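Q: Can someone sanity-check these two? First one:
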Amino acid sequence: MIDLRSDTVTRPTNGMLEAMFSADVGDDVFGEDPTVIQLEQKAASLFGMEAGLFCPSGTMTNQIAIKMHTQPGDEVICHRLSHLYNYEGGGIMVNSGASVRLLEGNRGRFGAGAVIENINIDDVHFPATRLVCVENTCNKGGGCVWNFDRLEEIAAVTRDRGLRFHLDGARLFNALSESDESPLDYGSIFDSISLCLSKGLGAPVGSLLLSSSADIKRARRIRKVLGGGMRQAGYLAAAGVYALEHHVGRLKEDHVRAKRLGLALEAVPQVERLLPIETNIVVAILKASVDQTAFLNRLSERGVRAVPFGPQTIRFVLHLDIGDDELGVVNSVLNSI
């Protein structure tokens, strides 16, 4: 079975497994796991931020960041396609007691003007606008990449208005591989950044939250409350260190294969159109007459798995377990379907 449902389905490489087996570990809740400390410091230094926190998932790092930046009754501004709004179990309300102002925009992206228009005035009738969140790349936008100039403009607004600015960077390294910016550029404009290690980078578990030392101290307490304190987590952190050192540079390969998959999908009669392909995510919109479930079942019967992504919409994600041979099989299946 060739699994294109997500880049979270990868297995550790032999090199990553070796790094995990040989990791030096301690009790992370006591702050004594040397490999976790190495990972947190390595990522923070890469982005020019003061500190990092290793967590089990990107959902947890996002939710910790929101709780860290807000108080119950505050309001969070994000795009209506945001992962932290759509796919995190209502966590903004459950964990932080915050309301959400949803913005429109091009495939998950919006401008500084939209932020300004949606900041509530200082009035007891309205929640206090406290936090702006963006997602790069935007999953539901088809893996699209934000223009950094636009992010800088939003950052200027948040600084001027006394708001905090959080980046859901689950696939940020995919975005970085398609732009001229560096991790340091991103670290300079955000108050906090969430990085996923278990998507394109191929680690089996884990995400990082990066921020100031003071914020990470508060985040560590929130992580404990959410049940995210791990013990000998260095075995998992070692996979993250390995991923940062060996798997970032290869992400462009996934993007190239995504475009090749897109060419094959464009020739499939049941496909109406594709979202623009910018990174490793390919989103296909089926024709109205096509039964989405039946189409996915036909793919699965032929050894290819994809995931429903909305009405008449399916998603394919390229990752490090999909090489040229696997892609060739997928393209043959699409030609026969």
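And here is the second, same format, sequence then tokens:
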Amino acid sequence: MTQTNIKTHNTESFRQHFMQEVPVLNDMLKADFGKFFIVRVEDMIRLVKLPVPPTRATNHTLIFLTEGEAIMTIGNDTYTIYKDECLLVPAGQVFSFKHLDINKGFLCNFHPDLVIRKTSLKDALNDFDFLNVWANPRICLEPSQALPVQQVLQRIFQIYNEQGLRQSELIQAYFITVLYELNQAYQPLSGNTQTQAIKLTNQFKALLFQHIKSKHLVSDYASLLAITPNHLNKVVKQITDKSPTKWIDETLVLEAKVLLYQTQLSIGEIANELGIQDPSYFSRLFKKYQKQTPTQFRKMIDKS
């Protein structure tokens, strides 16, 4: 059977599916908005068709709040941020949100090329850990850190609002400054100082993201990493407080949720898409983590 790829929305596709087409949107999103745009959070959220189901995007998204709160599910976890805090959704990561949050701040959407053009892909991912799909998406800033970030974002917003991307080099320079400022405050999901263990755990999560449809065993990933399953179990549990098996299971369920939203495939076909040959096992696995069967989950979608 040919695998069904989960749809990853570019900025134009996301707009078509999840945004209200009103004149003010054209004023907010300038020409070439697929490369970069910045808007006020409070202006954008009112135009979103809520809820936004689990989906992926080709661009990175950065939300920085100056007031209120924002709630978003990124990967398998739900995050709430407040004043002087950021959420960063890396390109390709699964995200969803459903609340009309009361807040103020800035939302930036940017293509990876915006960063790569000034450095390289390797340098960007090394310099900005939070651009990786396995990273901690929540960044909390001290007031002394938040102030310069807010000021630079305000300057970028002013340039973009007045000139669009006609001053793209200036916008790029300012925005990379923001990323470096955020990097000063960024904390990995684990505060553990054992850098080799953290590196191995992140490699595991990156491989999981790539191979979840075909590799479901801890031994599969241990083999890819050239280590023993016992060592992988020990390290991942130590760093994340979750076993590799739980990481694998939760990622399968996350992929299933996206397929349940995006396709009309039967439950058996979705199980097959995920490399699970036994639909009843798939249903049990889904219910274990979601507290409802795939069929019940789909009915909930249909009612929303």
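A (reply): Looked at the second one. The chain has a mean pLDDT of 91. The chain has two domains: 8-185, 195-303.
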